[in-house]
Amino acid sequence: MTLSVVVPLYNEEENIRLLHQKLREALDPVVEEYELLFVDDGSTDGTLKILEELQSKDNHITVLSLRRNFGQTAAFAAGFDFARGEVIVTMDGDLQNDPADIPKLLNLIKENDLVSGWRKKRKDPFFSRRLPSMIANWLISKVTGVKLHDYGCSLKAYRRDVIKNLRLYGEMHRFIPAVASWYGVRVAEVETVHHPRLRGKSKYGISRTIKVVLDLITVKFLQSFSTKPIQFFGTIGVLCDILGFLILFYLSLEKILRGKDIGGRPLLLLGALLMIVGIQLIGMGLLGEMLVRVYHESQRKPIYVIKKILGPEIK
Ligand code: UDP
Ligand code: MG
């Protein structure tokens, strides 16, 4: 098996047949061995029935049917777990991505570990989709330091080992290039065509923006501090404590030396608050440190990633 194409499908009954046909047209001439992994993400329409019918006629197809709607990221993750190809390509199942672009990605994956599509002429509504996405792309590239034009494009190609080392949560699939490049993975970008959605409904609205921003915070935090939480929480905590201590020290002097009444002063409240928050933050950092150890040691997760090992096989 050389190529696996993973397609998440949620209520896409009107698109599947054409999608399958276009995938065959695009792949048959250029790829010898491939599989099509259609992930039915708990569809409530005829999606699964059509998939079953196609599967019975075409041996390239594997259908994964999830018990309920788990979301696009989870559907991708399911596909990754079952993919057998050396290269794994993901795309949307609504024909907004074009299967005809896949050979272009396959060309580039020869010299890279991850190739991401760039919907340069994106055919989506401006205010509800393209504008939030422009802001999100700008934010993500600033925060993660990985420069891509279009993180949200589902059409991507990965080398197998990139995907198999990755765990996905939330709306995380758009951050795979960022996460992967911290592992030292070579990431490339290529322009791909984008079509308007002709059939079926889009599953997302503007509310996704907030989820993406929250996921971005998670990703950034994990990138910077996942192996050293005390440094993040502890630093803020210590600063709060120092400030709180200075304030309380000053108030104590006022009281003891000058005999002033400090009971009603707002500063007192602030000082006490800073002290408490500071101690809490340091505590959180320590808890984080324990979690990190549990996480890495219980699962034998290394804090490094190996590309290859040269030398006699080590057992
Ligand atoms: N999708 C899915 N599960 C969901 C939502 C979407 O598998 O909960 C699939 C959907 O069927 C499509 C792809 O993810 O193949 C992208 O969805 P959509 O076209 O609605 O997103 P948009 O292109 O509007 O960003
Ligand atoms: Mg779409």
Structure in words:
The chain is an alpha/beta fold. It folds into two domains: 3-225, Spore Coat Polysaccharide Biosynthesis Protein SpsA, Chain A, CATH 3.90.550.10; 229-298. 49% of the residues lie in helices and 12% in strands. The protein has helices spanning 16-27, 47-57, 72-82, 102-109, 126-144, 160-164, 176-182, 208-225, 229-258, 266-298, and strands spanning 3-9, 34-40, 61-65, 87-90, 114-119, 156-159, 187-192. Strands 3-2-1-4-6-5-7 form a seven-stranded mixed beta sheet, with helices on both faces. β1 (3-9), α1 and β2 (34-40) form a beta-alpha-beta unit. α9 runs antiparallel to α10 (266-298). It is elongated. It starts with a strand and ends in a 17-residue tail after the last helix. Magnesium ion binds next to loops.
List the helices and strands and how they pair.
Layout: E1 3-9, H1 16-27, E2 34-40, H2 47-57, E3 61-65, H3 72-82, E4 87-90, H4 102-109, E5 114-119, H5 126-144, E6 156-159, H6 160-164, H7 176-182, E7 187-192, H8 208-225, H9 229-258, H10 266-298
Parallel strand pairs: 1-2, 1-4, 2-3, 5-7
Antiparallel strand pairs: 4-6, 5-6
Quick recap of the structure?
The chain has 315 residues and is of the alpha/beta class. The chain has two domains: 3-225, Spore Coat Polysaccharide Biosynthesis Protein SpsA, Chain A (Alpha-Beta Complex); 229-298.
